[in-house]
């Protein structure tokens, strides 16, 4: 089996757990035997990205052409940074749309779904976001589902913050088998909640 590349795209104001939770799950998946490389990336070269609660992260590089791209949320209710600023800027939604068109599986955590909506990849598809963005997602994409994780094939979305851990565990299970996902779940002492809506 060839190695799968996963990239989690960071931007100033992203929510820490939205990105770091899935990162840890996927890294543990690789340690459990999944042929998977996970990287933290940005759109442009930078030495550091500052998250919404002040965590400073040194990214691994710039966004490439991954098999899987995860977009975290954070900052939807503010104007100066986070998802709102990324959507207003337009570059991240454009990059997400381009990756989607070339076959990358796109996933979002929390209000990262608003980036996917702005990219046009949620049009007519079931999706979920953090509770603060539900009404906006309904306006932008029109098909909000009451679930913790929604899997629509090449587009996946997760609800708020800790739902990103469930999303990443589901992705391990879907791509590499239940045994690897269960091993990571045990290692992290995490219990998934609810059913994945497919």
Automatic annotation (TrEMBL):
DJ-1/PfpI domain segment(s): 7-173
InterPro entries named among the record's database cross-references: Class_I_gatase-like, DJ-1/PfpI, INH-QAR
Pfam family, one: DJ-1_PfpI
Domain of life assignment: Archaea
Name of the protein described by the UniProt record: DJ-1/PfpI family protein
Organism: Natrinema longum
Taxonomic classification: Archaea, Methanobacteriati, Methanobacteriota, Stenosarchaea group, Halobacteria
């Amino acid at each position: 089996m060839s190695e799968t590349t996963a990239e989690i795209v960071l931007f100033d104001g992203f929510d820490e757990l939205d990105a770091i939770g899935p990162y840890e799950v996927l890294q543990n998946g690789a340690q459990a035997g999944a042929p998977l490389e996970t990287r933290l990336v940005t759109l442009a070269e930078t030495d550091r990205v500052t998250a919404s609660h002040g965590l400073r992260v040194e990214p691994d590089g710039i966004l490439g052409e991954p098999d899987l791209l995860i977009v975290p949320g954070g900052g939807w209710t503010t104007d100066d940074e986070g998802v709102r600023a990324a959507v207003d800027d337009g570059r991240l939604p454009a990059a997400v749309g381009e990756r989607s068109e070339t076959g990358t599986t796109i996933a979002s955590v929390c209000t990262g779904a608003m980036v996917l909506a702005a990219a046009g990849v949620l049009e007519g598809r079931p999706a979920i976001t953090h509770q603060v963005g539900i009404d906006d997602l309904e306006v932008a994409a029109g098909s909000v589902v009451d679930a913790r994780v929604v899997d629509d094939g090449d587009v996946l979305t997760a609800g708020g913050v800790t739902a990103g851990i469930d999303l990443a565990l589901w992705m391990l299970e879907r791509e590499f088998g239940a045994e690897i996902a269960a091993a990571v779940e045990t290692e992290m002492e995490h219990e998934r909640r609810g059913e994945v809506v497919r």
